[in-house]
Task: structure prediction
Amino acid sequence: MASSLFDSPLMGQMFPTGEVGRLFSDTAEVRAMLLVEGNLAKVQGDLGVIPEMSARAIARASMEIQIDPGALAAETGRSGVSVPALVAAFRKEMSAPEHAQFVHWGATSQDIMDTALMLRLRQVLSHVETDARAILGALSALAESHATTAMAARTYGQHATPTSFGAVVAGWGQPLVDLLEDLPQLRSRCLVVSLSGAAGTGAALGPKATETRAGLAKALGLGDPGRSWHTDRGPVLRIARWLTQMALALGKMGEDLCHLTQSDVSEVSLGSVGGSSTMPQKQNPVAPSALVALARFAAGLSATLDGAAMHRSQRDGAAWFTEWLTLPQLVLSTASAARCARALSTQITAQDDRMAANLEASGGAIYAEALCFALTGDMPRPEAQSAVKELCLRAQDEDTSLEALARARWPDADLSDVFAGAGRLGQAPADARAFAQRVRATAAT
Result:
């Protein structure tokens, strides 16, 4: 099996990452770091920290020079970080030592790498947001069209009370809307530059260190944190947690779809996908299963990333290396989940007849709660619950319906609304329609 399924020629179609996969390549990282170096020089030239002519030469070279990541590998292995090799290669390629000496002026490797990471995470959030909005468009239409499609709600895997398929779909989508509403604050708070020098003091950046950091933030379209965050991984953790929550929300949809497509349930179909190598009748829920796996993977990576946030002193190689190992896989997990869910959301078809049949398969036991409340006009609720529970057991033992036993036990009680199927949906239809309306309002902002 490949070391990473995300870029595996064999397995990659199960876990597509789209454009996000390209953002976490060596080439993309090198390009982002060069962009940071070029803009840093330009800002420093504007502030008079380095010669303006040199700043212009460095900024121009950062856009033109191509550096092979493989050529940096040996020195990166020795240094434990890629920036020294990158800076050396950049200076060499410039072929202008009088200007190249001002490359990376006052910065440290972590400044360049963390800022380059934020440039890529900014694009990640945009790609995931685009997919999430497409998912919500499909789910909102599904929820609204099935707002009153009655089905059995299940708790602990057993029939509970009636709900509607539209409300179930709304339950998948509401967390996604919450996450999209959190995005503006997440972006403004966490997509920030890093520029504070070797030990976080900014000493080598000179007396204009604060102005340089603010200028770099403006040039790159990132925020100015107003401080060093070398060992405070809060910006990275908050973005990672948002991504993890997105993966988990999509994983919940996957879990439900795995259940709803089971042969003994069959309340949802997903089209002609998921064939078996030996059983022609099977249509396995491949995409829902992928969503569940990706959510579990993201959750585990998130826990590891949290543990890596405890940096020792002012720089901690082990903690930083753990972040490098973990964060890209977490990002790709969520990106893949969003891509899978986007395609899947357009393939979900409700099997209304099967939902209705399953709803009634309990012989009316699914209406036991409603029966209890209907009887409270004539007896205390504990007494009603005890009596209804007794009838449920009888119905099961005698293979008869709860409705028949109830009408025989309480012939004068008005039970016309108790066993009414779609009439027992409570707020489910309203919840489904409210979700659809919320999605429309979110799309308009």
